[in-house]
């Protein structure tokens, strides 16, 4: 029969709970940044071709932002579920090896999914950087 503890000591479980709590808060705040990016109006172009190009770039940007939003939403949900399960592990004493294996899986999954978000943000910022660089080059030619 398993024992029930009444306090949370400094264990891998409490460290996991702290880390996931902090990262979940950061992910929630990033959702607001995504909302702000989606709310930006399409810049006015000079001609139909330029406006069509801007529209296509904006469409691709919105698709990437949608993917980032979905992944972050998943991470927040996963974080909440993993926090609940980790806190449950801290109350019910199982074999320490099983607890460590479960926490390792949660952590690995959380980190790898976070890397997916980082990669998508990298793609988004690379495109934005390239577009801004092109705008500077065009402005320099016209001056």
Tell me what the structure shows.
- The longest helix is centred in the last third of the chain and has 47 residues, at about 95-140.
- Helix content is about 85%, strand content about 0%.
- Helix 2 (about 50-90) runs antiparallel to helix 3 (about 95-140).
- It is built from 3 helices and no strands.
- The chain has one domain.
- The protein starts with 11 loop residues before the first helix and ends with a helix.
- It has about 140 residues and is mainly α.
User: What structural class do you assign from the helix and strand content?
Assistant: mainly alpha
* DSSP helical segment count: 3
Overall, the morphology is elongated
As residue ranges, the low-confidence spans are none
Mean pLDDT, as a whole number? Answer: 81
Radius of gyration: 22 Å
Distance between the termini: 80 Å
The total beta strand count reads 0
Task: Considering the chains and any ligands shown, give keywords for the structure.
elongated, mainly alpha, 143 residues
Quick overview of this protein structure:
By secondary structure, the chain is mostly helical.
What's the structural blueprint in terms of helices and strands?
Layout: H1 12-38, H2 48-91, H3 96-142
Helix pairs in contact: 1-2, 2-3
């Amino acid at each position: 029969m398993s024992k029930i503890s009444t306090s949370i000591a400094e264990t891998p479980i409490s460290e996991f709970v702290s880390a996931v709590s902090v990262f979940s808060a950061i992910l929630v705040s990033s959702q607001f940044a995504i909302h702000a990016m989606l709310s930006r109006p399409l810049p006015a172009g000079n001609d139909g071709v330029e406006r069509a190009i801007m529209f296509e770039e904006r469409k691709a940007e919105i698709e990437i932002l949608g993917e980032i939003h979905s992944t972050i939403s998943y991470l927040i949900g996963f974080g909440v579920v993993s926090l609940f399960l980790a806190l449950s592990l801290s109350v019910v004493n199982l074999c320490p090896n099983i607890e460590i294996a479960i926490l390792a899986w949660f952590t690995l999954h959380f980190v790898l999914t976070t890397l997916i978000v980082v990669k998508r943000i990298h793609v988004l910022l690379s495109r934005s950087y390239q577009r801004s660089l092109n705008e500077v080059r065009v402005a320099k030619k016209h001056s």
